[in-house]
Design a protein that fits this description.
This protein has about 600 residues and is of the alpha/beta class. It has a domain at about 20-175 and about 185-190 and about 245-395 and about 490-505. It contains 18 helices and 14 strands. Strands 2, 6, 7, 8, 11 and 12 form a 6-stranded mixed beta sheet that branches. A two-stranded parallel ribbon has the order 1-5. The longest helix has 25 residues, at about 75-100. Belongs to the EXO5 family. This is Exonuclease V. GO terms for molecular function: single-stranded DNA 5'-3' DNA exonuclease activity.
Length: about 600
């Protein structure tokens, strides 16, 4: 559903850019899920994106930014244009995925802030109804039906901070009794492993495809109320031998490269999925009026949603009547799901519909969602603890064929790595502990070229995170479908409440200004190569100063007895150091070109 606000509202003047991350947080009054996870790529990079209003088109952004410390920075125009193009390509993939399950957008007019929030809650309610009423997606791999909803809004409180987000996908999936344990144990950490599984699955006898009715959440808005639909009460619990069902949460990431990112570059995406599950569990816990079934579990650290407190924090009047134009569009929408909104309001002893009644409608739907998960018989969480990431390719890239070019590029990249890593020295603290390395998960391709593309992919994730929460909805695009071979690979991982809590506490302390920002770790300087702020970055400058301060001559081990010979050796070493310093000081970095295996110039 989309929001059509009253066109007569006066245009608001754009406020000046924020001066820091705490200033940005104070102005908003809430954080998005992306605000909590995307800075893990590089907190300085994320700050520069916020200060430069990177959610706007490049032509509308300020040419320079001034940080809290007084430094003035300018972004590299070529990198800005390159990343904007890549970002738009990634957003197009998400748009196509959404329209595969929601080809029709329903327009609901709003006039007040209470209308706007009622629409937000109604959006969540419609997605919940779609999940409960849709058939179970059967099959495996490419043969599995699309029994899912996409772009599900979620709201909640995390450590006293209001957090909002949009879940990419929730799937209602069939789970066989005999294979449930095996299904939970499957984890693909590399593309090689996933492709091996896919090849094995493709050679097995194929099953009939699931009915196309599995993906009909928004088209159902136009169905007749008398049309037969699968109601929650009609779904019987599965017998011990029959397949049950469960709900699985996942997120889609797009990449320029054709391989899965290493585990340390999946960190932000994994924390994102875990945060979504925590918020969903909080919504469900807040809606329950009685203890849930014993076999269903929730995130122990989830905060039950308190809508009364939330409305007060947002300065909303939950008992103000909603506008006639909003109700005109909302009533037929509810009827398409078999609910008479006017009758629901009357059953709650009221004559007019308010935000409070939409909240009651949502909580009723969430309780039905919990009940349906219980009927599925899978146990565990209402949203299963096994979360997933699907990596898709943005464009088809030609494989390089010239080995000589690859060798030359690798040699140049090695020199570049040594030059950049020399600037940043090892730093302690939690930042280094949060980052791990696992080269075994990478494909057997040119490693350094792969790192550059991984850096660009990861930085675009952070850039998209800023735009997702600050930019207006993009206009509708023609419906397209994505080919199955656009999937690079899938990664499964377990929800970890303790690790998530550690991450969220650090993230919130950063937004509140309770700790200093932290840049990339010494072994992740490749992330700087695609950053438009690299040449003015305060973190890199600070690490360079530390490197210079610690660059005093170290004591040498004397093994020669001849004093004259020792003196000559010292003079020779000092001359070599001076020559090296002169070489690096006169080197024209702007003239250095680094090319990938295809011969394309790579920005570094």
């Amino acid at each position: 559903m989309t929001d059509t606000s009253n066109a007569t509202r006066p245009a608001r003047r754009r406020p000046p850019p924020p001066t820091s991350l705490p200033d940005h947080f104070a102005r908003k009054g809430y954080l998005s899920v992306s605000d909590l996870v995307a800075p893990s790529w590089c907190e300085y990079n994320y700050q520069y994106g916020i200060l430069s209003l990177s959610h706007l088109p490049p032509s509308q952004r300020p040419t320079t930014i001034t940080t809290e410390s007084g430094s003035t920075l300018a972004a590299a125009p070529q990198l800005v244009a390159q990343k904007e193009s890549t970002l738009q390509a990634g957003k197009a993939v998400h748009s196509v995925l959404e329209r595969q399950v929601a080809p029709v957008q329903v327009v609901v007019e709003t006039e007040t802030r209470e209308d706007a929030w009622a629409l937000r809650l109604l959006n969540v309610w419609c997605d919940v109804q779609a999940l409960v009423q849709m058939p179970v997606a059967k099959g495996k791999g490419r043969e599995r039906g699309e029994g899912c909803v996409r772009e599900v809004p979620v709201y909640g409180w995390i450590h006293g901070v209001l957090v909002m987000g949009v879940v990419d996908e929730i799937e209602k999936r069939a789970v066989d009794q005999d294979t449930r344990g095996k299904e939970k144990a499957k984890t693909w950490t590399s593309q090689e492993e996933w492709k091996k599984h896919q090849r094995k699955a493709s050679t097995s006898p194929k099953k009939p495809k699931a009915s196309s009715d599995a993906s009909r959440p928004l088209t159902a808005f136009f169905a007749s109320p008398s049309q037969s639909q699968t109601q929650p009460s009609q779904q019987e619990p599965p017998s011990p031998s029959a397949p049950g069902w469960a709900y699985f949460l996942s997120d889609t990431k797009t990449r320029i490269s054709s391989w899965l990112p290493p585990p340390e570059d999946q960190y932000s995406a994994r924390m994102q999925c875990m945060t979504y599950k925590r918020l969903l569990d909080g919504l469900l816990l807040g809606a329950l009026s009685s203890p849930p079934p014993a076999h269903l579990t929730f995130d122990l650290n989830a905060t039950p949603m308190d809508w009364t407190h939330t409305f007060a924090a947002l300065d909303l009047d939950a008992h103000q009547p909603l506008s006639a134009s909003f109700l005109r569009d909302a009533q037929p929408l509810c009827e398409s799901w078999g609910v008479d909104l006017a009758l629901f309001v009357a059953q709650n002893d009221a004559d007019v519909c308010t935000l409070h009644h939409v909240r009651l409608l949502l909580e009723d739907g969430l309780r039905g969602f919990v009940a349906d998960a219980g009927r599925g018989g899978e146990g565990g969480g209402v949203i299963q603890d096994t979360l997933g990431l699907t990596y898709r390719r943005q464009v088809q890239r030609r494989r390089a064929k010239r080995k000589k070019s690859q060798a030359a590029t690798a040699a140049a990249d090695d020199a570049l790595q040594n030059t950049l890593d020399a600037v940043i020295v090892t730093s302690g603290g939690d930042a280094a502990a949060d980052r791990t390395s696992d080269d075994e998960a990478r494909l057997h391709t040119d490693d350094e070229t792969q790192k550059k593309l991984d850096a660009l992919d990861g930085r675009n994730d952070a850039q998209q995170a800023i735009q997702q929460t600050l930019s207006p909805p993009s206009p509708t695009t023609p419906r397209r479908t994505l080919e199955p071979n656009s999937i690079i690979g899938r990664v499964s991982f377990a929800h970890d409440p303790r690790a998530l809590d550690t991450h969220l506490r650090r993230a919130i302390s950063m937004w509140k200004g309770e700790r200093a920002l932290v840049g990339v770790a010494p072994d992740q300087t490749r992330r700087c190569w695609t950053c438009e702020w690299m040449h003015g970055c305060e973190w890199r400058a600070e690490q360079a100063r530390r490197h210079e301060d610690s660059g005093k001559a170290a004591p040498t081990l004397e093994v020669r007895e001849d004093p004259q010979q020792r003196s000559e050796d010292v003079v020779e070493v000092e001359q070599e150091d001076e020559e090296a310093d002169e070489f690096w000081s006169t080197l024209d970095y702007a003239a250095i070109q680094v090319r990938d295996s295809a011969g394309n110039v790579v920005a570094w």
